[in-house]
Amino acid sequence: MLSNRELAQLIYPSLPHTSEEYEAMYPERQLPEGARVTRLGPSPTGFIHLGNLYGAFVDERLAHQSDGVFFLRIEDTDDKRFVENAIETIITSLAFFDIRFDEGVTESGDIGAYGDYTQSHRGEIYRTFARKLLEDGLAYPCFLSEEEISAIREKQEAEKTSPGIYAGWSKYRDWDKDEALAAEVESRIRSREPFVIRLKSRGVPNASAEETARHTVKDAIRGELSVPDNFQDVVIIKQTGIPTYHFAHVVDDHLMRTTHVVRGEEWLPSLPIHVELFEDLGWELPVYCHTAQLMKIGEDGNKRKLSKRKDPELSLDYYRSQGYHPAAVREYLLTILNSNYEEWRAANPEASSDEFEFTTEKMSSSGALFDLDKLNDVSKGTLLRIDARELAGWLKSWSEEFAPEYSYVFADMDHLADILDLGRHDARPRADLIYARQIMDYISYFFDESFTRQDSYPAEAADDSEVILRRYLESYDHSDDNGAWFDKIRLIATDLGYAAKPKDFRKHPEEYKGHVGHVSTVIRIALMGRATSPDVWAIQQIMGEETVRRRIEACL
RNA sequence: GGCGCAUUGGUCAAGAGGUUAAGACGUCGCCCUCUCACGGCGGAAUCUGGGGUUCGAUUCCCCAAUGCGCUACCA
After folding, report:
1. pTM attached to this predicted model
2. A369 CA to B9 C1', in Å?
């Protein structure tokens, strides 16, 4: 009968390195005390959503806040899922939101000494460690067919016991206890029949709660986790020779010297497997950070739902095409990531978000519902902090990529910057810019190309509109200052029987036709086509006298 | 079905065995001598339920309910 060592040799006769050699090739990193090494491991499905960004922020902050390393590893162990150009999409989408990697896969090859950073290129490494497990008798080849496995499952369901392949149900697990089986295994390997490598779990199947051994695992978000012993003989190397996630995670994060593994809470149930694998290989466990999932309200009723791949507003591209500024999305994510961020921001309105000390302890362990109102509010404040000229440039590049129909807006960039800056430097700055598409609509009246009359005159002053506009035009002096300008409006109002102050009108409505607000609204509509806008005088200064006169005349 | 995680207003949430249970968004009202925005003031609105432990529990324990997840040779 074959020994474990001979079996391992038979399965993997020619691997270029030993596990010890790999250990030496990827030594512990020389980093300052407390530096954290994190990684993002997307699978190249070509779809990134807010949830991915959310996790990526945690990785990025943890690493860069501690002078550590943040790297990108492509987890493409599922050949069925590969989507063309997905890697490029991942990199550019994340870069757009200012997620920068220090190491790993880039568009022009790998960077860093701990590669290769693409799992599908690491086959030999995984097999080497699988071989080590085989040698140690901690793994075994399994020839169970799909049909056999489903037959086992059915039987387990009938017996109401845990489904899966594990001691008592796994024929090949104890191949070395049976002469005939050992011979079968040997000959099937020699004849190159397909098989998988399974972990030979040391856990006790279906032990009672009291009998189940438990491990304490550190989770930086959830505190100490009590993890039960694993007993499932999970597949670690698939028929194709490619590892499953479980095995790749353990091998890679050890060899790449990851200190903090940030991943979604959906991984919590498989933590026992990873704990056993780390133990089997004699490696130290990383610190886990299991993040809560971002959720949204489902259209069916108002129940909570997972951030499904199909929800367009959860896709990163949605925010880019709507024209949300990356800094705003970042700011929003930070507010839901760390409960004390808003407080910090209030105290440090001008500081860069990088100065905020992000901590995993302040992260919530229950899933947050995505809140568009909140994003919009955060965005208003964020845009206020961005210089108008810079904002104009950013809008231009947004338009070029997503909305070329607005090209006329960018004909005069100085003019655009003036428009965007309207009221932003007052003692109480206006905050009405939210995202590019909204801004395009918001400033549309400045451009003849997009100027439309959407509101009608207020009932109180509709009959007098022509008189009002005629008198306005006659008395208009473009060089008036704000005070002189408004005095003229007041004069028109009182001459025509309107109250100079809205309060007076409210107190004695029977004495007036309306108040000065109604009069100014007539002018506002003639000039802007809408009843609400920032200060008319300030707008006129930006519009220029010619446009002002032309628009008023058009209403006479 | 089994297992895991979660559960403070509509949303994000702070919080401690004894609090008037913060704050933000949203919403409603008022004010800010033109609208809107900004800002200010104020209002409505929360500890999932049931058992324990305790002088006292929203806070600790148990059970239940609900939500989400895992239960693949997907990640």
Report:
1. 0.90
2. 15
